[in-house]
Amino acid sequence: MLELLDVHKSYRMLAGRKHVLRGVNATFRKGERVGVLGRNGSGKSTLVRILGGVEAPTRGTVRRSMSVSWPIGMAAGFQTALSGADNTRFIARIYDRPVKETVEFVESFAELGEYLRMPVHTYSSGMRSRLGLAISLAVEFDCFLVDEALAVGDTRFGRAFGARLQRAGLILVTHQPSLVRQLCTRAAVLDQGTLTFYEDLDEALATYNSL
After folding, report:
1. Which of 167, 35, 138 is nearest to 130 (CA)?
2. 20 to 30 A Cα–Cα from 11, which one of 26, 47, 156, 202?
3. Greatest distance between any 2 Cα atoms in the chain
4. Which residue numbers delimit the ABC transporter domain (predicted)?
5. What digits encode the pLDDT tens for the residues 11-59?
6. Which residues lie below 8 Å from residue 164, measured CB to CB, with a gap of 6+?
7. CB atoms inside a 10 Å sphere around CB 87
């Protein structure tokens, strides 16, 4: 389970503090697939970073009793001065996975060629997404945290990711209702710093479209 308890996030600005998340409470259970919808600027990226442990809340508590991936589709979580192979080795050691086999899987699946031995800062956004997805599939998290930059359609990556979701959970943060309908069974809407959950997908999508 992954829980957010009264989570607030604000940033210091020249004109004062900008409040992005205001008292967010959420529970994500192992194996469920949840879509979080939000317009550009609603705080989706901040929420993703907090869910993935990349960034800490200003106030509140994050509790984890299942393994959650880093935000797949974002550059967050990688040491960009290191190569893709070095990042893979580092992550394999953190999650107690066999290093050699993990690197071999990522090399085969991501199809980055010589770039796997080059610094991640030389990668395109698509190459970073492929690296992130390949490593996450090798680690086998309980829950995948995915932002909308990841293409999950009828591609090799999309099919492999879809197959993996049969055995794991998903938190998808996006502004595209079609992705939520395609991949999720429950949804929430992030608006003005608050997160509201809906058990009915149609209700969630209607609420989001009315914003």
Report:
1. 138
2. 26
3. 51
4. 2-211
5. 988 888 889 999 999 999 999 999 999 988 888 889 988 998 889 999 9
6. 137, 140, 144
7. 22
